Amino acid sequence: MKKRSYTLLLSLLAIILLGGSGCVIHDDDYYDPTPQPTGYRNVFNEEFSTDNRGWTFDDPADSAYAFVTGGLYKFVDYSYTGGTHEAVVTTGANFNRDFLIQTRMKSNYAMALIFGASGNSYGYSFFIDEAGYFAVYKEGYYPEVILDWQRSSAINSGFNDVEIEQVNDYWYGYINGVKVFQTPARVLSGSKTGFMVLANTTGYADYLTVKW
């Protein structure tokens, strides 16, 4: 009896120890310490139903102006030079992390989504034109070409959905849901976001959304 009891005790002890070890191994196999993405937590949204953020401007000396009308933002530039008027507002976005900017716009020549501008920087532009081309620039008195003009079949006549997204130090550009470019992210100095048109352009934006 003593031998059987001793053997039974050892068996029970082995089961407990092995069972505990098995649980630890199982946990190690399936535990992932990497933080899981939670999505964007902050949103700036502009529907252009009113102009309470100061989008309107008028530069009669250079034949350029813009205003909110009927749920749209209308941007007109009849200047000879063009490219010097940006209509941007502060969004409060943190562009030092992943972000997503979305808009819907159209023009009779070329219009850009501007992002990352500040009081001392013109930011970057994502242009599309009515001939089916797009380009990306670092804006300024002497713009720097990030992606030169290239054709994309994703561009429609009329309104186009335009997105710029930063994920893991890369920018991704989308037109009507189609990825048209990928390029390493650059440092953005501010949260101001908005629009630009080239000379002799009338452009419209339907909305502007920034998520971060």
Can you describe this structure in just a few lines?
This protein is mainly beta and 212 residues long. The protein has one helix at residues 2-30; strands at residues 43-46, 57-59, 64-69, 72-77, 86-90, 99-107, 110-117, 124-129, 133-138, 144-151, 160-167, 170-175, 178-184, 192-197, 201-211. A hairpin with a 3-residue loop joins β8 (124-129) and β9 (133-138).
Shape: globular
CATH topology heading of the largest domain = Jelly Rolls
* Rg on CA atoms, Å: 27 Å
Low-confidence stretches: 1-37
Number of DSSP helical runs: 1
Q: What are the secondary-structure elements, in order, as H or E?
A: HEEEEEEEEEEEEEEE
In CATH, the homologous superfamily of the largest domain goes by the name Exo-inulinase, domain 1
- Average pLDDT rating: 85
The largest pleated sheet is described as: 9 strands, antiparallel
Proportion of strand residues: over 45%
Under CATH at level 1, the class of the largest domain stands as: Mainly Beta
Whole-number count of domains: 2
CATH-scheme architecture of the largest domain: Sandwich
Q: Please provide the count of β strands.
A: 15
